[in-house]
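Run UPF0301 protein Cpha266_0885 through structure prediction, thanks.
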Amino acid sequence: MVNEFEKLQSGKLLLASANLLESNFKRTVLIICEHNESGSLGFILNRPMEFKVCEAVAGFEEIEEPLHMGGPVQVDTVHFLHSRGDIIDGATEIFPGLFWGGDKNQVSFLLNTGVMQPSEIRFFLGYSGWSAGQLEEEFEIGSWYIAEASRDVIFSDAYERMWSRSVRSKGGEYQIVANAPELPGLN
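Sure, done. The structure for UPF0301 protein Cpha266_0885 is below.
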């Protein structure tokens, strides 16, 4: 049987287990964009902020979409995932149809001219990062699950249900976990 951690690679979803109660990651869904011997990097998908992109990111004054908390690392940096690697220079493909980064000025131009739609991009403040071996240790103590990613999940605005739907999609015993109350002691 393959160890769950051995399935981890760029383009997979990282789901906080029900045991992970740390506030930065409780019931989060992350997309892993980089995973190698040096560590891992990803973005939290289900933590929209109260700020809109137009209020916080220079050059994107027309974008009324929410800015997302990508994670607790370098929260003074802005990152983006998008589906238009075919027209954005410097983008890194995460899986077919999903790209990370690229030329920010080009993205601004494409959005402002309507060539690219806001629904094709998601902006993040900061990122989630793990040093070499750190994420593996967290797996060993049961902090994370791995699931398949899709563009539908990445660009979904069903933030409240994203974690339970993603956990439930794993099937079997995970369906019970997905339905567990957030604070079982209050039942």
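Residues 159-168 form the longest helix (10 residues).
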